[in-house]
Amino acid sequence: MTVRSDIEVARDAKMKPIGEVGAKVGIPADALLNYGPYKAKISYDFIKAQGKKKDGKLILVTAITPTPAGEGKTTTTVGLCDGLNKIGKKAMSCIREPSLGPCFGMKGGAAGGGYAQVVPMEDINLHFTGDFHAITSANNLLAAMLDNHIYWGNEAGLDPRRISWRRVLDMNDRALRQIVNSLGGVANGYPREDGFDITVASEVMAILCLAMDLEDLERRLGNIVVGQTRDRKPVTAKDINAAGAMTVLLKDALMPNLVQTLENNPVFIHGGPFANIAHGCNSVLATKTALKLCDYVVTEAGFGADLGAEKFFDIKCRKAGLKPSATVIVATIRALKMHGGVGKNDLKNENVDAVKKGCSNLARHLENVKKFGVPPVVAINRFITDTDAEVEAVRQTAATLGAKAILCNHWSDGGAGITELAEHVVDICESGKADFKPLYPDDMPVWDKVETIATQLYGASEVTADKAVRQRFQDLQDAGYGKFPICMAKTQYSFSTDPNLKGAPSGHTIQVREVRLSAGAEFLVVITGEIMTMPGLPRVPAANNIRLNDEGLIEGLF
Asked: Could you say which of 39, 41, 57, 73 is catalytic?
């Protein structure tokens, strides 16, 4: 059997003009700002006009803890959208925009796969509509204005030793993690330590994804804390007059992007914060707009449910007033075998015992999702090497926790291969069983919020931090930021901070290394273990194999 690559499948797609795709959910042509024939942004006037319409049902797609074997969360999000349309429901999906870092690094793109993809695939995985460039520019404009403010007299009294704002780049580049800027003499400013994060870790990205409109965007940008004075008073972007210009750069980027699946169903792709170092969800504006247009909206949250789903519930839903009706947890037999101790080279061989052992990971994610009051279902993203006995082991695990596990063939068959899951998701949504609630209340002390996440979701026995970090928690609490939710920055590969600890480890310690205030995004980033906010490229990056062929077509993108 010859398996076609994602890019080959995408290239053969019979795309419809974006106006026809938008019309399926009631978006008129005059509400579209076209970026060529197959991409468009949705106008603010149209979005505002939908305000009084009733919301549809919101479905979250999350996953077990990721492994090198792959899970297929975005593929399932796209496939479920097609499956819902296939059974006659008015549905669309909302996903994140891919970052160039993974595209040219190791992970690849984020437009789905096989016959459950969003197109035009090459555009989406590369520059798309320029949103990430706008976010990068806005972030770095603030950095430039900050250093310029210091150069021309420092009216705000910024202490150069306490500047917290960093520059960003949408690429994996470890050489920029820690730098010294302004070298070369008096004309270049005051030398200081600085560094770069990847664009998807920027607070500007988080703000764009949480802002309700342009006014809210400018308010949040103005509240970004860029540093402190010598007497530890915060200095904001508004204090150095940067918020207005940043908003101008982001004026078009805030509008959601409309594209289509291979089956010509509408998809919003907008925003893209990582879930291991940011909050991992597409924009509030895209999700809320889709809910006004459709009966069912399928969205995803990055990596495993311990990261993406938790932040979706505790940050995005809390801030935007969203009430999800169902959760789909994506699993593969291959990934469960890895959690059960099988090496990557042996995944093709049947090993029911390893699947059962690996199901401890799935079980914890099921239990965790239930703590938020949202009914779960397991989607088994099928591979041709899966056996009936292995699939049955997953079904039994799910059943013991009151959930169904459904075999899905959307990768090979598109929407037709996932209709059983679509029907069950509709049943869950219409059952009225969902009773969403965040994991912790707003007024819980910030340290206690971190302990709640670590002990109730990660299976940890304790959270530790050195004296300076503990003092930072107290300072943020005393400064009035105690009501903010927590955005945990943690490895995606384990419930613990050790990426090699598979399955469902318990009794481990979560060590907090740093706490960053995101006053504009209105959450606190708690950095644990060895997590990096600027990744590096692997020994053999995907970029080594990406090229234009003799016909001018892209090869190697996946």
From this structure: 73
**Per-residue pLDDT, 415:** 96
Whether residue 75 lies in the annotated active site: yes
Active site residue 229: no
May I ask the CATH architecture of the domain 6-129+253-431?
3-Layer(aba) Sandwich (3.40)
Q: Active site includes 14?
A: no
Strand partners, 486: 524
- Write out the two tokens for 149: 């403010």
Residue 540 sits at the vertex; the CA angle it makes with 170 and 330, to the nearest 5 degrees, is 70
On the question of pLDDT at 1 being above 70, the answer is no
Catalytic residue among 383, 416, 452, 558: 383
- Containing H/E element for 245? helix 243-249
pLDDT, tens digit, 9 for 90 and up, residues 507-537 = 999 999 999 999 999 999 999 998 888 999 9
Whose tokens are 């076209």? That residue is 34
- Our answer to whether residue 107 is catalytic in this structure is yes
Handedness of CA 94, 77, 298, 221 (dihedral sign): negative
Instruction: At 497, list the tokens.
Output: 């901070």
Q: Determine how many CB atoms are found less than 10 A away from the CB of residue 442.
A: 11
Closest CA to 415 of 248, 238, 262: 262
Residue closest to 299 by CA, chosen among 459, 59, 109 = 59
* pLDDT digit string, tens, across residues 328-338: 999 999 999 99
Per-residue pLDDT averaged across 195-215, rounded?
Answer: 96
Name residue 108's amino acid.
Answer: G
Active-site annotation holds for 303: yes
The question of whether 261 is a catalytic residue gets the answer no
CATH 3.60.70.12 matches 446-528: no
Choosing from 275, 278, 379, 422, the catalytic residue is 275
Average pLDDT score over the chain? 95
> Which one from 274, 303, 312, 484 is the annotated catalytic residue?
303
Architecture of domain 131-249 in this structure: 2-Layer Sandwich (3.30)
Q: Which residue in the block uniquely carries the two structure tokens 């979005």?
A: 47
Select which of 39, 96, 449, 490 is catalytic.
Answer: 96
Say if pTM beats, i.e. exceeds, 0.90: yes
More confident residue, 551 or 216: 216
The answer to whether 503 touches 360, Cβ cutoff 8 Å, is: yes
Given the residues 274, 411, 473, 523, select the one marked as catalytic: 411
The reply to whether 558 belongs to the active site is: no
Start-end of CATH 3.10.410.10 domains in the chain: 446-528
The answer to whether residue 2 is catalytic is: no
Catalytic residue (one of 65, 67, 74, 75): 75
- The residue annotated as part of the active site, out of 107, 292, 364, 502, is 107
Q: What is the mean pLDDT of residues 395-421?
A: 96
